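During the no-cost extension, the postdoctoral fellow (Dr. R.K.) reprocessed legacy sequence entries with the updated structure-token encoder. One reprocessed record is reproduced below for audit purposes.
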Amino acid sequence: MIEMTIKSLLGYLYRMIEMSVILSITIGILSIGLNSHDHAEMGGLLSPIIVAILWMWIVSLPLFIIYVVSFIRSFPPVSIYKKVVLSLHILNIALWILFYLFLPKPEPCDAALMEKHYMAHHDDMYDLIRYVNSSIDDSCSIDLQYRNNEVVTFTIRNKGRFQELKGIENEYELDTKLHSIGLSIQELKEIQSKMRKAGVIGVEVDKNPISVWDAGKSILLFRWYGVNKYQFALYDHSMTETERDEVMRLHQFILYNDSVVFESYGGYPGGRGFPDKETFQSQHDIH
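Re-encoded structure tokens follow.
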């Protein structure tokens, strides 16, 4: 009798663990898929999870074995419980397939593409920066970024005080906050128009940067690739030798000329930086 009770309790405990593992994976797939803009971002979000799983293999390996055994044991689905388990496994597979089919597949960005864009839109890019600089007050900053025509970042700063404007739909409230840095809604629309003309999806101008490294530096966001973003850093002066050396040293920067740097930032290994940096710089005689 005691032996049967223990077996029953162990069976119940196993089912609880089994169901928790399956549902956790289902929730994880949904979270990654729904929060991804494209295939590359889905891979970027999945990468740190895989690293964490490998790091915690003592815990993750038994759970992985339980998941595989669960799938095998669900055949044939002769009981209600096995039918539920099999359905969840099929759902997990279906979700991966659906996200794979319907998430867009972005084209990778590289230094050559950025150079081509810079050469074609040089005047429009600097016109955008000049307009933003002349529109906002001294000691103020603006950071506006889009992705798939949706605002992902919209912050302003007035003398050290940051304000988040993303999600504000009330025109009066938006106009009031913009006026705190000297902008109007009409000027904001003009900035957006000049961004489209320059072929960029983000602009960051800071007239009172916290870091001396950012003095006279404006950022134009060019492309997203997963969680990685490619942007132009345009300086209003020739970079110092120290700044040039720092750019040349780091793999996520490419020194295009004395006042232009191509930048690549990402959130996962293998997805950030410029793999073609050395080739590009050698072809352009950048030392």
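The first helix runs from residue 2 to 34. The chain has a mean pLDDT of 87. The remaining legacy entries will be reprocessed before the final report is submitted.
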